[in-house]
Amino acid sequence: MPNIKAKGAWDMGKHFITVKEYKASAWCIKNNIFVYVVPIRPGEWGIEISIAGKINKSPYIYKKNIIWEKLHEYYTYYYDKYAK
Questions:
Q1: Structure confidence at residue 31 (pLDDT)
Q2: DSSP string of the chain, one letter each residue
Q3: Pairing verdict, β 54-57 and 44-51
Q4: CA atoms within a 13 Å half-sphere pointing along the CA-CB vector of 24
Q5: Which residues, in sequence order, are CB contacts of 63 under 8 Å at separation 6+?
Q6: What pLDDT does residue 27 have?
Q7: Are 71 and 21 in contact (CB under 8 A)?
Q8: What is the pLDDT of residues 37-71, one digit of tens each?
């Protein structure tokens, strides 16, 4: 039996993105809108959003799996707001 290590406290879980989430993130990155994860402490992350070099921080702390959903929620929000 192979030796399988347990995932550590920094494991962020999984999120399978939808076609729209992929399209939104690609559009945002092309247009200098970056949403990224910032580690807070083991098992907790924050999100920062950089729009044309100006950085905004989400006031919330996210847990495993939720962090990916929120990251793509932000990309989709900016895509819906600015892509025309």
A1: 97
A2: ----PPP-TT--------HHHHHHHHHHHHTTEEEEEEEEETTEEEEEEEETTEEEE-S--B-TTHHHHHHHHHHHHHHHHH--
A3: antiparallel
A4: 18
A5: 43, 44
A6: 98
A7: no
A8: 999 999 999 999 999 999 999 999 999 889 999 99
